[in-house]
Specification:
The protein has about 160 residues and is of the alpha+beta class. The chain has one domain: Alpha-Beta Plaits (2-Layer Sandwich), CATH 3.30.70.141. The chain has ten helices and four strands; from the N terminus they run βααβαααβαααβαα. It has a four-stranded antiparallel β-sheet, with helices on both faces. It binds adenosine-5'-diphosphate and magnesium ion. The site of adenosine-5'-diphosphate has 14 residues, from α4, α5 and α8. The site of adenosine-5'-diphosphate (ADP) has 14 residues, from α4, α5 and α8.
Amino acid sequence: MQERTLVLIKPEGVQRHLVGKIISRFEDAGLKIVGMKQVWVDKEFAKKHYTEDIAERRGEKVREQLLNYIIEGPVIAIALEGVNAIENVRKIVGGTEPKSAPPGTIRGDFAHVSFAYADAKNIPVKNIIHASSDEKDAKHEIKLWFNEKELHSYKTIQDFFM
Ligand code: ADP
Ligand code: MG
């Protein structure tokens, strides 16, 4: 049941000084930080994160927008560990569209824009944060963003209570 998942605080989350607040939400929920760094990636790297799969699901135009968006500035990459971490982190993050993401979620609390607004402006939906969507994605993404030496196994106070 213990899983690892990847979170990225996207460039506008970093630029809006939301990093501390966002990390607090995961720590408060008992998720363990097992890897964390600030990285400014290039488009080649971005293509390995936003793979063809995105184009199939959301269209080629959205993928191209995303590739340019994620390289606008440095991101914070975080590997989190916990029970059902993939699903739990997605719950804390909220749905893709900030307009529909409920209050209490990161996307619902720190953004409000809609798909329609993004489409009209020809920009990606700016929703602060990325989180792996399933086990396959989590494995691929953690391996892409972190090498073995950057990931740590250790005990926190959380292990005492679980
Ligand atoms: P999520 O990030 O919730 O897993 P997806 O993987 O489907 O969502 O999409 C990746 C990212 O692409 C979203 O977080 C959002 O920034 C952007 N995006 C998705 N759909 C659209 C859209 N229709 N128009 C603009 N941007 C979009
Ligand atoms: Mg996704």
